[in-house]
Design a protein that fits this description.
The protein is an alpha+beta fold and 197 residues long. It has 2 domains: 2-44; 49-173, no CATH class. The chain is built from 6 helices and 6 strands; from the N terminus they run αααααββββββα. Strands 1, 2, 3, 4, 5 and 6 form a 6-stranded antiparallel β-sheet that branches. The termini are far apart.
Amino acid sequence: MANGTNGNDVDERKGKINGTRWVILSCAIGVLLALVVIGVLLIGGERDPDEMAREYIEGNIDKLGEDIAGFVVGDNWLLKELGGEYVEDRVNDVVHWSYSPARLVSDGEYRVTATASVVFNVDYDVLGRTFFVKASLPFNLVVRPGEDRVLGEPDYSSGRVEHDIPAVPQIPSSREAVEKADEAVDKAKGLLDKLGN
């Protein structure tokens, strides 16, 4: 070849030039991708507040079930006798959640109301009846997507409980009834002994 070069020298120079260009091009693409990712995270990377509210409810269902059961039981003699765990199990079996749309209340803070609704029957063999219970309890959620945080509290003042359980005094358990009967018998024996002497 002319100028004292052979074909191999030219090919080696082209390979070095192409290799250098490839490294520069790869670095430029990497920098561009990094800028795009950073831009997405800074501009619109916040999570959807409605989705965060639903995830909060689903992730705290046991605690929320306890809150709902406690609200449903309240001062009701029958439900207290059956126990909070019984009511909580019934609540968890039938609870339905509805959600308000997220409302922006301040910079980066949204409010969502998640309302739990339950309808179930209670079989009470002692009275030979089945009673219905219907309740709803809203939970006020504060959603902060920028902090990836949700806070929630039940709104007992807005909750409702309906049932057809009669308002009767608490029926003593069989053990309590036996103890009271034994006490009455002992008192009667004491009076008879006093009268006999």
